[in-house]
Design brief:
Helix 5 packs across helix 14. The N terminus is likely disordered. The two termini are 31 Å apart. By secondary structure, the protein is mostly helical. It has 2 domains: 303 residues, Hypothetical protein af1432, CATH 1.10.3210.10; 62 residues, no CATH class. The protein has 20 helices and no strands.
Amino acid sequence: MVQSPASLQTAPASLQLPPTDWQWAHEKSVCEPAQTPPVASDSQRSPAMTGLRLYDQSEHLLLASYAMHSADTEGRLHPEPPHAYRGPFARDRDRILHSSAFRRLSGKMQVFTGEMGIYHRTRLTHTFEVASVARTIARALRLNEDLTEALALMHDIGHPPFGHCGEDVLCERMSAVGGFSHNEFALVIVTELEQRYAEFSGLNLSRETLAGQDVRAHKAEAAVGRAALLEVQLVDAADSIAYDAHDVDDALQMGLLSIDELSELAIVRRALDLVRGKRGMMPIHQLRQSLVHELIDLQVSELVNVSVEMLRRQEGRNHNDVCDLGVRVDHGETLRRERRELEAFLFDAVYRHPRLIPVRDSAAQRLSELFDVLTRDPDRLPLRFRQRLHDHPLEKVVGEYLAGMTDAFCDQQHQYAMATSRGPLADW
């Protein structure tokens, strides 16, 4: 959603933002008389032309030169007429939000399963948190919020059931066909498996949105040479900021970690010092919540401050220029080192916690057994996936079917597959 100019006039004192084009234009108008633009006749106007012209003008005033402007989009694989009042990336965002694959994220675990309580994040709540952080950064850096939000909402849409253990199972069982990547599967979902239009398969998203997800699927290649769009980069940063903070929150709430254990980490000590300096002593549940807030705010603020200084030198260049120059946003070296320490700690202390291992092993076994059933007897695949066997290898199709499941749906189909019935399993 395009923000009004008023929303950009103030910023926290810690963020030294450059003047926006809108502010420059406002100051300029004080000294110069306004010029009346030519008025089109009624025969020249159309709702789509008028709405998009205003949309483009708003972006020109609000966005930095190096942002991805809607007017510069390379369009869609299947051409469509412009919408009367939504830009191309706003339409992408809405198509992702209304897709069935997006809704299924509510039934997919992030790290902890439903057997371990209801407080912890799911893929859906994680996705909303990433979108919130990413939009905040995009607004501060004067980047395209619509594109940023579309990319954030899409980024985990390809995750299989049972979190990373589900991905590990599929990657191993699909090794003969190149393994499995949830980032690549997200592209399959939005270009092939979602069926919402009579004219074409998929959601027909803008090329920039698809290219941004492709960068996630090939991170190693994207880390060198020509850089991805800045909007793509900040969604990746927002993802890691969000999951580091909420994994801390969930682990503390479930008693897998203590504040004392976490305080051995430099970034947590820094956040705790900030919390106690602002609020003093407080009950443990409030300290946990304040710590998570401070962890996010600390990382977002530094990323914005470092990026603002770097991007000052790119004023006047367009999105292609900064990509060609290899401009990349990131934290400073100290915070990067502290974040690596936190993530290594979480990997050992949380993701490999003794309470988590049996749950993960049991889920992995059920998923693997379903894979065996379907590869032995492909006729048990739903009709839509049996039809895909004409163009794709069996292991790939079985993996796609399983990857689209929610945790509960996977358990239901496993129970049905292990019973005496030999009929096809249900489609999701």
